[in-house]
Amino acid sequence: MRLSRPARGVLSIVTGLILLVIYLPLMVVLVNSFSTSTSLVWPPPGLTLEWWGRAFQSEGALDAVLTSVQIALIATLVSLVLGTLISLALQRFAFFGREAVSLLVILPIALPGIITGIALNNAFRTILGVQLSIATVIVAHATFCIVTVFNNVIARLRRLGTSYEEASADLGAGLWTTFRLVTFPQLRSALLAGGLLAFALSFDEIIVTTFTAGAGVKTLPIWILDNLFRPSQAPIVNVIAVVLVLMSIIPIYIAQRIAGAEKVSR
Amino acid sequence: MAVDTASSGQRIPVPPHRDTLARRGSITLSAHPRLRLTLMLSAPLLWLGLIYIVALAALLITALWTVDSFTGTITRSWTLDNIITVLTGSLYQTVTVRTVGVALLVTLIDILVALPIAFFMAKVASPRWQRILVIAVLMPLWASYLVKAYAWRSVLSQNGIFEWLVAPFGGQSPGYGLPATVITLAYLWLPYVILPIYAGLERVPDSLLEASGDLGGKTWATLCLVVLPMIWPAIIAGSIFSFSLSLGDYITVNIVGGANQMLGNLVYTNVGAANNLPLAAAIALIPIVIIFGYLAVVRRTGALENL
Questions:
Q1: Does B295 reach chain A within 8 Å, measured CB to CB?
Q2: DSSP secondary structure letters along A151-190
Q3: Structural domain contains residue B166
Q4: B206-210 long-range CB contacts below 8 Å, 24 or more apart?
Q5: Which range (A34-43, A51-60, B105-114) has the least confidence?
Q6: Lesser CB count within 10 Å: N end or C end of chain A?
Q7: Chain A residue nearest residue B59, CA to CA
Q8: What is the pLDDT of residues B161-179, one digit of tens each?
Q9: ipTM summary value
Q10: Could B146 and A200 be called an inter-chain contact, meaning their C-beta atoms sit closer than 8 Å?
Q11: Is residue B131 part of a domain?
């Protein structure tokens, strides 16, 4: 199939338009973070740097960012371990209930967040009898983050095959040595991609978090929800959103570089 | 080295393995794949089973209990009252139809928007542009969900940029309501739909498209008969995201939906303000049943391996 020149043109214009719509609200956020008006007036009546200055002094916001990073890091680590184990088991073994296990991994993300949220809230409080805290948020987040790691790793394992591992075992390496020196290096970029997605998922989660966070736990999304409708705070929220988008370039760029390098070396 | 030893006529003996505990463990595990499987699966299954399945089961059981309207505590006597209320109440029927309608519409819009951009990314753009476009699609994911929903509130407001853009052409902002909810939700989940479809398209070999062209297939025929069947699982995988995320949403509706309620709102009010967890659990059964039905239907397409 050769796309004709006009078809290519139309396709690139459509792509451009879609990107425009994707970035229009983000641009509004950017401009509003400089606007002198605290309500949603367009075009902004004047520009100011006041919100940017106040955002970096807002302790609530900075604390919330730290809490969110902490939760997302631990949840990502847990989901990396559990997701890798599950994908190795499902990809390398045929056993009874294999389908059920893969459904079980998908379920926490396929069921709406509010259901996961109230189910975990109810279980933590009434069945386990634990106080909601930062730990309960981490447990909840890790549960729905497993799937992103699982998907990336199992897709990679399917492509790899087992010949390298068999060669390593034939040459006398034990299971752990084989995993450390043969399997893991081949999985690294898949783990990175899955881990990044898991981190992003956890960092931005609000619904499950609302139901599993203890009274004193303020993640960034919870802080944003608290402040979004306060006229004096809303512009600061805009500033934080802009900073987050800008900072997200770094991990995405690294992931792209690694994926690109692997494509070349293969 | 092998040549060396052969020519000199001597053999270097392989040193015997040290008999460490790790080695013995490794040998045992190699000889018993079942044991290996059990060890690998026990941690994740304990985690998912103990935390998630028990929690879900407990929620379903709660739907069969009632709340004492006087003390506000849960009475553990079995009754189908909540389920019957949810199945027969006109409020729940209306809201269910509205929620499913919104979720389906959002999914349809997302697929229609994702197909051309994903195709451009995977098959038309140069490798350099491909990388830039993937970043461009991924980046909005990092802007907070709440901020993006709020940005649409700003875009669609009476003094917003949408009104400002279309007013010269006699247009008008749809204001806050169901259309705004659909637009915002479709916007929020779009990257989750683009990415699997893009990955699916990347797996379609260019040689197949060329073969189709060589055999006389026109562009449309190639797209419909070669590309679409191959990326169908990826499309379904994307739709699971947009459908289920829309089905449970209650925050976006609060921000841009005006007075409209979705299933998520009903669950939320019953857990919070109304303090009626059994009824909330009964309402939550509706999306659970819908999602399970959806998963059962799409399982055969292999979509679950494309998430």
A1: yes
A2: HHHHHHHHHH-SHHHHHHHHTT--HHHHIIIIIHHHHHHH
A3: yes
A4: B206/B123, B209/A1, B209/B123, B210/A1
A5: A34-43
A6: C
A7: A119
A8: 887 888 788 777 787 889 9
A9: 0.84
A10: no
A11: yes
Paired with A47 in beta bridges are A35
Calpha distance B39→B48 (Å, rounded): 15
Candidates B156, B140, B139, B158; CA nearest to B148 is: B140
Q: Report how many domains make up chain B.
A: 1
Q: For B76-90, how does the pLDDT look when each residue is reduced to its tens digit (9 = 90+)? A: 777 887 888 888 888
Range of the domain at B249: 88-305
* Residues of A with Cβ-Cβ distance to B304 under 8 angstroms: 102-103, 106
Residues of B in contact with A101 (CB under 8 A): 41, 45
Q: Write down the pTM of the prediction.
A: 0.86
Closest residue in A to B265 (Cα) is A114
Q: Which long-range contacts (CB under 8 A, 24 or more apart) does A2-6 make?
A: A2/B213, A3/B124, A3/B219, A4/B219
How many angstroms separate the most distant Cα atoms in chain A?
A: 73
CATH number of the CATH domain containing B163: 1.10.3720.10
Q: Which of B23, B124, B135 sits opposite A253 (nearest CB)?
A: B135
Whether B225 is covered by a domain: the verdict is yes
All domains of chain A in start order, with CATH: 25-56+228-266 (no CATH), 58-161+195-214 (1.10.3720.10)
Tell me whether residue B32 is in a domain: no
